[in-house]
UniProtKB/TrEMBL annotation:
Pfam families: GFO_IDH_MocA. GO terms for molecular function: nucleotide binding. It comes from the Bacteria. Residues 3-118 form the Gfo/Idh/MocA-like oxidoreductase N-terminal domain. This is Oxidoreductase. It comes from Ligilactobacillus agilis DSM 20509.
């Protein structure tokens, strides 16, 4: 059983811990929170937790766990992942793994100095069967002529922003915004399904504090373009589509894939299956399998392939931000 520690005590962490337990491969042992009461409150459903820390360095140094799941505000991922790798832990970091290629390079160099440790970005949807079904279907298309993918969901925290508060997800200090929060799912889809684009441009609608509320990204490939529609201040009900010749891959939502179809003018074939109730189960199983048998060559290759996709996504995300002068606080 893999002993798990967590950073961040919001709902997504509970979702991940439940998925990790459901996988049968992990057991939660340690909780870090800035407040002891919060750590204890989080752990009330998990009697396996005996270790509570409010000091991050002491937490990472604790021998009570070997894998840490980090679900803190985006701008903290880099320093916390670094601290975890240095302390000898395997690391699962929520998306986006870090903010720019410089940080990504530092993480990779550190990882290279810590042979045998793994670093995973929790891009949950890329482990789900329906994402993989699309990937397989794309590979079989006679030609790809482009795609349009949409993920736009009104955030309840936008109400807080409008009320004059400064929620992390709309804050330049914590690297918030539509692209970082929801766009990263779409960029993972594009990179995973079509490879690295030749060019990437972002056209954001910005808030007064400079953060992108919504936007359109255009990824240019050799023979086609992919359009990404992302937003946190409006809802979209548009499906996603990938254009072959007579075939179109149709999906209800590229990040929350429940329905995928291969359509022609005369036929419709369902490619999707009913997703797991917990949308983080697939990634928990995937990471757990690798960590349980870390020396198997196929597991090492799988982890390397995930990391390569993460590195490419990180580059594309940064290019998108550069194209629209979207920078965060404390970013050199
Ligand atoms: N995969 C998915 O489906 C999914 C869904 C939602 C979010 N996420 C990702 O999960 C991460 C967390 O998102 P979230 O919305 O939960 O973020 P959040 O509410 O802003 O913060 C998450 C946790 O970080 C800690 N924290 C909050 N503010 C902090 C601060 N100023 N300084 C230090 N720590 C702070 C808090 O834990 P303590 O108070 O206990 O210290 C909090 O529970 C993000 O990277 C997001 O992209 C992923």
């Amino acid at each position: 059983m893999l002993r798990l520690g967590i950073v961040g005590t919001n709902w997504i962490t509970k979702r991940f811990v439940d998925a990790a337990h459901e996988s049968g491969l992990f057991e939660l042992r340690a909780v870090y929170s800035r407040k002891l009461e919060k750590a204890q409150a989080f752990a009330k459903d998990y009697p396996s937790v005996q270790d509570f820390k409010t000091d991050l360095e002491q937490f990472m140094a604790s021998p009570s766990f070997e894998v840490v799941y980090i679900a803190s505000p985006n701008s903290l991922h880099f320093s916390q992942a670094k601290a975890a790798i240095k302390a000898g832990k395997h690391v699962i970091v929520e998306k986006p793994i870090c903010l720019n290629p410089g940080q990504m390079q530092e993480l990779r160099e550190l990882l290279a100095e810590h042979q045998g440790q793994f670093l995973f970005e929790a891009a949950r949807h890329t482990h789900e069967p329906n994402y993989l079904a699309v990937k397989e279907a794309v590979a079989k298309l006679p030609v790809v002529q482009g795609a349009t993918l949409t993920y736009m969901k009104y955030s309840s925290r936008y109400d807080a922003y409008l009320a004059g508060e400064n929620p992390n997800i709309f804050s330049p200090k914590f690297a918030g915004g539509a692209l970082q929060d929801l766009g990263v799912y779409m960029v993972h889809c594009a990179v995973g399904w079509f490879g690295k684009p030749l060019n990437a441009q972002y056209f954001p609608t910005k808030l007064a504090n400079g953060i992108d509320a919504k936007g359109i990204a255009i990824l240019t490939y050799q023979d086609f373009t992919v359009t990404l529609n992302v937003g946190k201040t409006a809802n979209s009900y548009l499906p996603g589509e990938i254009y072959g010749l007579k075939e179109t891959i149709w999906m209800d939502n590229a990040a929350d894939l429940k329905q995928v179809e291969l359509r022609t003018p005369t036929t419709t074939r369902t490619l999707s299956q009913t997703p797991a109730e917990n949308e983080l189960l697939a990634e928990a199983v995937a990471f757990g399998k690798v960590l349980t048998n870390p020396d198997l060559p196929e597991n090492k290759a799988q982890a390397q392939a995930w990391l390569e996709q993460t590195v490419t996504v990180n580059e594309v995300m940064y290019q998108l931000r550069q194209s629209s002068n979207l920078y965060f606080e404390d970013e050199n």
